[in-house]
Amino acid sequence: MTKRRSAGSKPLAQRLRTALVPSLFALVSASFLAPAAAAESGPLVQEPHGDWVLLRGAGICQLRHTILSAASGAVLLEMLLLPPGQGRDGALAGLRVPLGVSLPDGIAWRHRARPDEAIALAWQHCDPDLCLAAGEISRAELDRLRRGASIEVGFRPLPGANPVRIAVSLRGVTAGWRALEACEAGAG
């Protein structure tokens, strides 16, 4: 049986009432508004780090890995990592998947070395194409992402359907995270 562990140690409602709300709002805003903000304030620079890309621009710093369908070029999954905000440890993580997911079933990732432990994120927003789940992850989980080779993200497209499982490469997370911290320190 798989243990589901939320992306934090406190209940989600309590974390959202504290300092996480502004951080999640920043994650949602950054993930959806990055191209629009870049168009208004200058181009986004895409700096590759292995299989990940650091997006930097005026006030925008995020580490992103996008998996596209080979057949259609559509986004199958996008994973985002951002610093958690001043005075907090760990990271903010986001997963974007195509519209049509079973929201009550949630979304989570697991490491091969810990197949019985899932890191769950909370659904935040859906637009006409994609749904975003986000949450704060611990420093220990960020370190596992930095040391790992890959994770497996799982979600159900429909209630009761078999889960969709997508492998996500972690090659480049360590170098990308260092670049992200430098980007944040320099404010883009």
The tally of beta strands, per DSSP, is 11
State the name of the first-level CATH class: Mainly Beta
Q: What overall form do the CA principal axes indicate?
A: globular
> What structural class do you assign from the helix and strand content?
alpha+beta
| CATH fold category name | Immunoglobulin-like
The total number of structural domains is 1
Query: How many individual helices?
Result: 3
Q: What's the CATH architecture?
A: Sandwich
How would you state the average pLDDT, rounded? 83
Question: What proportion strand?
Answer: 35-45%
Task: Please explain how this structure is put together.
There is one protein chain. The protein has 3 helices and 11 strands. 31% of the residues are buried. It has 188 residues and is an alpha+beta fold. Mean pLDDT is 83; it is low at 1-6, 8-25, 29-33 and 35-39. β10 and β11 form a beta hairpin. The radius of gyration is 16 Å and the shape is globular. Strands 1, 2, 3, 4, 5, 6, 7, 8, 9, 10 and 11 form an 11-stranded mixed β-sheet that branches.
List the helices and strands and how they pair.
Layout: E1 3-6, H1 12-41, E2 45-49, E3 52-57, E4 60-68, E5 75-82, E6 91-98, E7 107-111, E8 114-126, E9 130-137, H2 139-147, E10 150-155, E11 164-169, H3 173-185
Keyphrases for this structure?
11-stranded mixed sheet, 3 helices, Immunoglobulin-like, single chain, alpha+beta
Short description:
This protein has 188 residues and is of the alpha+beta class.
